[in-house]
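Exercise: predict the fold of this chain.
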Amino acid sequence: MQESSGEARAPSPSESWQTIHSTMEAARSSMYLAGTTTIILLWGAIASLGFLSQHAIATLAPEFAADRPWFPGPLWVALAAVGTIASAIIGHRAGRDSAIGGAMRSAGIRVFLFWLAVLAAAFAIPAAAGLWNADGAERIPGVTIGIVALGHVLFGIMVRPAIAVVGVGLAAAYYIPNSLAGDAAPVVTAVALLMLVTVSAVWLRRSGAL
């Protein structure tokens, strides 16, 4: 006997499982994505501050920059440390609204360890490449931005592809002006990064990606 048009068809076992799986996956993803919009804005602001500070020091205190050509290294490592710690705190606090108990703690620890690895790479890779000296210090910002952008790409691949797109945008906002804008590259990059993260945050929020 056929079902009447007014009766709802009972979901099949496979459909029920797919619904449960989708719900669980959404809950898991929300724990790892908690606070992501704020974190993206934070990294954009930190990167912009780094480029503007570096440009200001080189322009307003040329003697200081000449005597200490290695100053971009400590500047960027300090900023990366602030960004990593702040990202972990933001993600952990935002995760309280998504889950409770062991699940939330596990997600928070994994996100913290991920960004801690990004911080370690921002220090270790320039050191391994021999950039921690007067000749290589000016290349450290480019390496740092590349590592942070890669961190966003990898995080996006694992959790939400839209974040990977933001990571690619971060890299483009640095490398394109650096290749084409000459001495004005730091200022252009700082402005481009602020615009990028602001537009990205609005896009991710409105599109439902976060």
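Check your answer against the key: DSSP finds eight helices and no strands in the chain.
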